[in-house]
Design goal:
Radius of gyration: 29 Å
Largest sheet: 5 strands, antiparallel
Shape: elongated
Number of helices: 6
Strand content: 15-25%
Mean pLDDT: 84
Oligomer: single chain
Order of helices and strands: HEHEHEHEEHH
Number of domains: 2
CATH topology of the largest domain: Alpha-Beta Plaits
Helix content: 55-70%
CATH class of the largest domain: Alpha Beta
Amino acid sequence: MPTPNKAASVAELKDAFQSSNAAVLTEYRGLTVAQLKTLRRSLGENAQYAVVKNTLTKIAANQAGITALDDHFAGPTAVAFVTGDPVESAKALRDFAKENPNLIIKAGVLDGKALSADDIKKLADLESREVLLSKLAGAFKGKQSQAAQLFQALPSKLVRTVDALRAKQAEQGGAE
């Protein structure tokens, strides 16, 4: 029979899984408390990094409908619950792991889909959401200006064609 503390922990973890749009499992063996504090700061306000008990976290994940992580709950585990931009958090984890090889990214989940450690590294290589949106807006703006130029060119070309036809008719009328 679960104790009230364990039941509360499972409920809290379940809520964290459900309210976040991504979660990344890591192994933190060998990291100092100061390094973990630095990692939490580098993740910023978009993510919460929690050292968790494997059994309770597995139960909470399953209750939240996430079963893809079941095989990764072994050894000392911590979870980064991402509520903001997952690319930004993946970059922070990747960069921290480069400087601190004791941090091992195990797996993750993004919008209910399982991610391997390699998938998370690929996600970290993407540009941030803001950069991608600004590039998209620039592309749309470029297409709009091209369309505007095309629409402006059509009437002026029509006017030039009509003027050329009038001149030709006047020339032919004057030659007769």
